[in-house]
Design goal:
84 strands, mainly beta, cell adhesion, 13-stranded antiparallel β-sheet
């Protein structure tokens, strides 16, 4: 396949340019109409003799000073015969001299023959010219593209409201002449080369053609080696097939096929230009150029003997006949500087295959009619006849439409197009339910000519499509046909009792037959036959709005007579023309949208040609890593190469294309790829002085002779850099060539060389040689485009870039932040066209432009101020269908393009970012400025521009909200990061729970540093009147201590689970004989489910919140102290402390210790569990026993808060019954069976758990002793657990613990 890379005008060889200088002189502005005689002008009608068409010459005052028709309506026209084919470059009009008559708007038709008119088109539409607003001012229009014609016809569309149609005109251009040759489908012009074989490096072929056939070869040449070049019509499209060479093995395939244009069988002239230099080709059809590169690797076109025009010579056709030859006319045929048509006249080329070579074009015999949605054509037929016989040819893009409606006595006949097939309805009565339906064909709305023949005779009807009588559809009629004699084509608008299912037809018809007789539409045009309304006769103005295809990125184009539509499904793009990517441009952008690690689709070039692709985004670190995997398995054994000199080649394929990989590496700040070479008697780089045995190939197919851990130009491995190789005489472990397995591993970090695409291993052919290769995924971090920013410090500051390129489609996006209420973001100007993005006020962003139809402005209004010094995103897009402005992805305004008008944005000035043309500039920051998917380098320009500085600070004001759970946003030059060090959470946004699983006997101890310590802990120690404790847990064991905070006095805070699993908080602050206790007796919390506890104390007020229930307030007694004195240590899971400790805690709750999960433990900005699992040096935290990191104690907050009135935890929730009251459950007879079943399941689970407990005890039993304040009996017991059991016989659940204690 090939890649369309743009439109090029630069490939013009000198000889070709000279050819066009002859055919189209540079100065082509002669006056063409004024010198003509009176008889060269004609019109549809005249108001009087002195208002004749011959008086319609610019500036002339003779007669009544111009032309005026008898009636002022849209059926009038003024025609000029230029007495020969002329090249026309401009037209001008005036109103009728000294009158109130002028023409405000008009259309221009042109023709070579005075029939088969073609409307002048511009920007993909039938163009409407603006005319005059008074009788004297001249309105001149330079044609966007010159036309060649003999006859011109002006059609007034709007005229003076005070008077009537009045017109004087002038036509500007020059003489046009070209040799014309008529092709009859048999004759071929053969241009013989001077040499038998030609190796052609460059070609230039130009010609003009016209035809009413949709198939035919225009140019053909081929060689015996398989090269060929063919230009042919296929289904009314022009197709260029070219092959510069393929090999016999099929590994190089040179065939390339490109199509252009549509509806080229319109019998109008079309110009073609083919320019080739090596593999680069410009293919131009009627001002539309496609630039592409041919497939394969060859540059020369090898042709034998000749190149032919008008078809293939008989010697080149296969036995089946091959493609059809061309039928029509060609002129101006040039091949590599030779004028082929001139050589044919001089008989210097072979034209022997022509039966009768003519140098003229045959006149078209068709007389088409063009219908729009308001058109109707009424034709007479035989009345009171027993036959309806109608046939016609049509072409359309609309899936539905009315061909014909003819009333009958009784009933009627409807012939229409429905969903792309022809349908005939024969109404046998006045009701719609009494009809006969016949249908045939499919997909007939493809823009091609199709024929329909309908015959209703006596008691049957036949429908035939495209003359295929074998597929005709026949139906029996229950009535005898009797005609009324009226036939309505293309539209039937009267509201009657019997109306057709379709109302109108949009498209062209020709060769209309009524009662088997060809209708003379020329007589209809002259008013001598039938009648019509809004039908354009003697022309087919059907436009293929999908060629060229404005649907980008593979969007599917569909159309009707008025417009086209793009379907963007499964393309990865959205918008009216599938221009805007639905994906972000990098993993970095996903991170700052608040996303977490996952696989994402990215589109690095936005609206550019690169397709979106899927990558893995790792956001667990400060850096966001983008990962691209390859298909090479780890430790891939290197097979023995059949060619020892070449070596074994291991190729790597990535999950994305080469261009997509390069897009990632080019935008990244850093890339790396881990490589490992395991070897046994297989040398790697053959260091220090030998030629490398192994090398790898990277970007651009370049060979590299360094290995992971080293760098370009250094023929060493990582051990050679670090000087720790197995053999110090070599720079790689494998180069020692030992029989034992060795390994050289490291990271390749020079991103311009990455990725690794293949590795060539050369030393595996010796006996005993073995090697294994591992190439890890390509990993990149950073997005230089996303943080590319500049600060504008003065109102006059600006940056300038090359002119914005976006004639028919463009987009601009950027982020900004400012404290100013107004300013110009950017602006680009043309002669009259412009584009501007502006902050109009503190809450309004404006997108304004002009493409020639007058200024258009879109505004997006934000409910909040935009000058809040936070980042805001602006996206603007304009295409031929609409303009769109988006603000912060929330506010959007869309403005549809006018159905008729200019569509091309023509700019010439530089693109200014900031102040422009003396207007008020922008104060603030702009970053990630992208135009058509390409990031403009603001940093580079700002570094050399006064008043503008590279970069921008203050990202936290916009993105700091993403730092959760007390995480602190920290500014960086190219972004921000979340500091989670003072939280109990981790991760890029401080949202990842840090928790651990405690086995029996495990404890975590966090010691506060005494006053004078330098750590953060010393700042939260001391005497406290306010503390906050938050944690979550899950366990199935009770009793136990969850959290204990001790002091150097007798003050403490303890959170425990009692024997029945209920929660208890114990506060001892002094002043009371017993600790202040909060006991929550409502629920067993040792149920294996996660629970969250939040405790906050301020002086005497204690606030408690459990899980998702409302906060409950308690008060310490008046006798209690309010200071928590000399906080010393936090214990999690168990207490192991010296000094005075509440004996109740030790005796009832401390043994065997907590078994389960704790998570997100936080006490006054201290996270002891996180400190244990994320150790630092020095550290005040220690762990005893087995602690395994796990977030099993985390509780997802998915349940909405419960109202206090129904809170079962609230002691004074008067009258509210606990939701799990057994009486409520058992009172319903249906639930008793469920209870029995649940009991059986519980017994089974309990048995399994007991077995597991026994196994755990047996596996983790340890012996030892230590001194502590444990329960009585500890001295005589084997362990502290045994002491608890001896003193409390009711306690039957025992789990041994590990007695080991260590500090980190």
């Amino acid at each position: 396949m090939f890649q369309i890379v743009g439109i090029s005008r630069g490939l013009c060889v000198t000889l070709l340019c000279l050819v066009f200088l002859v055919d189209f002189p540079e100065q082509c502005d002669d006056v063409l109409a004024t010198p003509l005689p009176y008889s060269a002008f004609s019109s549809s009608s005249v108001l009087a003799h002195d208002f004749g068409a011959g008086y319609a010459k610019l500036y002339r005052r003779v007669g009544h000073g111009g032309w005026s028709p008898l009636d002022s309506d849209r059926y009038q026209w003024l025609q000029v015969d230029l007495k020969g084919r002329k090249q026309i470059t401009a037209i001008a009009t005036q109103g009728r001299y000294s009158s109130s008559d002028w023409t405000k708007q008009y259309r221009l038709l042109y023709s070579d023959t005075g029939n088969n008119w073609r409307p002048y088109r511009q920007d993909g539409n039938i163009w409407t010219f603006s005319g005059n607003w008074n009788s004297e001012t001249v309105a001149r229009h330079e044609l966007q593209h010159a036309i060649v014609a003999r006859y011109l016809r002006f059609l007034p569309l709007e005229w003076s409201e005070e008077g009537r149609i009045g017109l004087r005109l002038e036509v500007y251009g020059c003489v046009y002449w070209a040799d014309v040759i008529g092709f009859d489908g048999q004759g071929v012009i053969s241009y013989r080369f001077r040499q038998k074989k030609m190796k052609i490096l460059k070609d230039v072929i130009s010609l003009r053609f016209k035809t009413n056939k949709g198939e035919g070869v225009l140019v053909h040449g081929e060689g015996q080696q398989g090269d060929y070049l063919t230009l042919e019509l296929q289904s009314t499209k022009l197709v260029l097939n070219i092959n510069l060479g393929s090999n016999q093995y099929g590994s190089i395939r040179g065939h390339t096929s490109v199509s252009s244009g549509s509806l080229l069988d319109d019998d109008h002239w079309h110009s073609v230009l083919i320019e080739r230099y090596r593999r680069s080709v410009n293919f131009t059809l009627d001002q539309h150029t496609q630039n592409f590169r041919t497939n394969g690797e060859f540059d020369h076109l090898d042709l034998d003997y000749e190149i032919s025009f008008g078809g293939m010579p008989l010697s080149a056709k296969s036995g089946s006949g091959g493609p059809q030859n061309f039928i029509g006319c060609m002129e101006g045929i040039h091949y590599n500087g030779d004028n082929i048509t001139n050589l044919a006249r001089r008989k210097r080329v072979d034209t022997s295959s022509f039966r009768n070579l003519t140098y003229a074009c045959a006149t078209s015999r068709t007389f088409p009619a063009f219908f729009n949605s308001t058109s109707t054509l009424q034709l007479p037929g035989r009345s009171d006849a027993d036959t309806v016989a109608v046939s016609l040819q049509f072409r359309t893009w609309s899936a539905s439409g009315l061909f014909l409606f003819a009333p009958l006595m009784p009933g009627g006949v409807e012939l229409s197009l429905a969903e792309g097939k022809v349908v005939a309805h024969v109404y046998v009565g006045q009701g719609k339910n009494s009809r006969i339906d016949i249908s045939s064909g499919s997909g007939l709305n493809d823009g091609q000519w199709h024929s329909v023949h309908f015959l209703a005779l006596e008691s049957f009807a036949i429908l035939t499509i495209n003359g295929d009588e074998t597929s005709s559809v026949r139906a029996t009629l229950p009535i005898q046909i009797r005609t009324v004699g009226d036939y309505h084509f293309g539209g039937y608008f009267p509201r009657t009792d019997l109306s057709p299912t379709q109302r109108a037809f949009q498209g062209c018809m020709q060769l209309i037959h009524v009662d088997e007789q060809l209708v003379d539409l020329r007589a209809v045009e002259q008013g001598m036959l039938g009648s019509f309304e809004n039908v354009s006769l003697d022309m087919c103005a059907l436009i293929d709005r999908c060629v060229p295809n404005h649907c980008e990125h593979g969007g599917r184009c569909s159309q009707t007579g008025d417009t086209f539509k793009c379907t963007c499904d499964a393309t990865g793009y959205t918008g009216a023309t599938c221009h805007t990517s639905v994906y972000e441009q990098s993993c970095e952008e996903y991170k700052y949208l608040g996303r977490t690690s996952d696989s994402y689709w990215i589109d690095p070039d936005g609206s550019g040609p690169l397709e979106p692709f899927k990558v893995n985004c790792d956001m667990t670190e400060d850096k966001v890593w983008t990962t691209l995997a390859n298909d090479l398995p780890a430790q891939s054994a290197v097979s023995l190469s059949s060619d020892p000199e070449r070596g074994a080649v291991l190729k790597l394929n990535y999950t994305v294309s080469t261009d997509q990989v390069y897009a990632v590496t080019s935008n990244a700040e850093h890339c790396e790829q881990y490589v490992t070479y395991a070897c046994r008697m297989s040398r790697l780089l053959n260091s220090p002085d030998g030629s490398p045995s192994t090398w790898w190939v990277g970007r651009g197919n370049e060979k590299h002779f360094y290995w992971g851990g080293s760098g370009p130009g250094i023929q060493k491995c990582a051990c050679g850099i670090e000087r720790n190789c197995t053999d110090p005489n070599h720079y790689c472990n494998c180069d020692a060539d030992q029989r034992q397995w060795q390994e050289d591993a490291g990271v390749l970090m020079y991103k311009d060389h990455l990725p690794v695409t293949q590795v060539v291993v050369g030393d595996t052919h010796r006996s005993g040689s073995e090697a294994k290769l591992t190439v890890g995924p390509l990993r990149c971090h950073g997005d230089s485009n996303y943080w590319n920013a500049a600060s504008f410090n003065t109102p006059a500051s600006y940056l300038h870039f090359p002119t914005l390129q976006g004639e028919t489609s463009m987009d601009i996006s950027f982020y900004f932040k400012t404290s100013s209420p107004h300013g110009i973001f950017l602006e680009n100007l043309g002669n009259a066209d412009f584009i501007r993005l502006e902050l109009k006020s503190a809450s309004v962003v404006s997108f304004s432009f002009d493409v020639g139809n007058g200024p258009v402005e879109l505004t997006a209004r934000s409910p909040a101020p935009l000058n809040d010094d936070q980042w805001h995103r602006v996206e603007a897009e304009r295409n031929v269908k609409e303009a769109v402005l988006r603000l912060d992805k929330l506010h959007r305004e869309v403005r549809a393009a006018p159905p008729q008008g200019h569509t091309r944005l023509e700019l010439f000035s530089q693109l200014f970012v900031g102040a422009s043309g003396g207007q008020r500039g922008f104060l603030g920051c702009i970053r990630s400025l992208k135009v058509n998917g390409v990031t403009l380098d603001l940093v580079e320009r700002a570094a050399v521009t006064p008043g503008v500085k590279p970069g921008c600070s203050g990202h936290c004001s916009s993105y700091g909200v993403h730092c959760q759970n007390g995480g602190k946003c920290v500014e960086k030059y190219n972004g921000y990061t979340c500091d989670c060090s003072l939280t109990a959470f981790d991760g890029p946004y401080c949202t990842d729970d840090v928790g651990g699983y405690f086995e029996s006997g495990t404890l975590v101890r966090y010691d506060f540093v005494p006053d004078g310590g330098s750590s953060h802990a010393s700042r939260v120690a001391g005497n406290l009147t306010h503390e906050e404790l938050t944690f979550s847990f899950s366990t199935s064991h009770a009793p136990t201590i969850l959290v204990y905070v001790s002091s150097r006095t007798q003050d403490y805070l303890a959170v425990v689970l009692r024997h029945n699993g209920t929660l208890q908080i114990r506060y001892s602050l002094g002043g009371l004989k017993e600790p202040f206790t909060l006991s929550l007796d409502h629920r067993n919390m040792a149920n294996g489910q996660p629970h969250v506890v939040n405790i906050s104390r301020q002086e005497r007020v204690v606030l408690l919140q459990l899980d998702h229930y409302p906060t409950v307030s308690y008060s310490l007694p008046e006798a209690s102290d309010t200071e928590f004195n000399l906080v010393k240590t936090i214990f999690l899971g168990k207490v192991f402390e010296t000094g005075q400790i509440d004996p109740v805690l030790i005796e009832r709750y401390n043994t065997p210790g907590f078994v389960g999960c704790l998570s997100r433990v936080h006490f006054n900005r201290i996270a002891p569990l996180k400190a244990a699992l994320r150790p630092a040096v020095p550290s005040t935290v220690s762990v005893q026993g087995v602690l395994v990191e796990s977030n099993c104690g985390a509780l997802p907050l998915t349940v909405p808060p419960m109202s206090a009135a129904f809170d079962p935890w609230k002691p004074d929730s008067g009258g509210v019954q606990f939701p799990f009251n057994e009486e409520l459950v058992s009172r319903d007879g249906v639930n008793r069976d469920s209870a029995i079943i649940g009991g059986i399941i519980a017994v089974v689970i309990f048995t399994i758990l007991c077995t597991l407990v026994f196994l755990v005890r047996h596996m983790f039993r340890h012996k030892g002793s230590y001194h502590t304040n444990e329960a009585k009996g500890a001295e005589s017991a084997d362990c502290a657990d045994a002491a608890i059991i001896v003193n409390d016989p009711a306690f039957t659940e025992t789990i041994d613990e590990s007695k080991k204690e260590w500090f980190i």
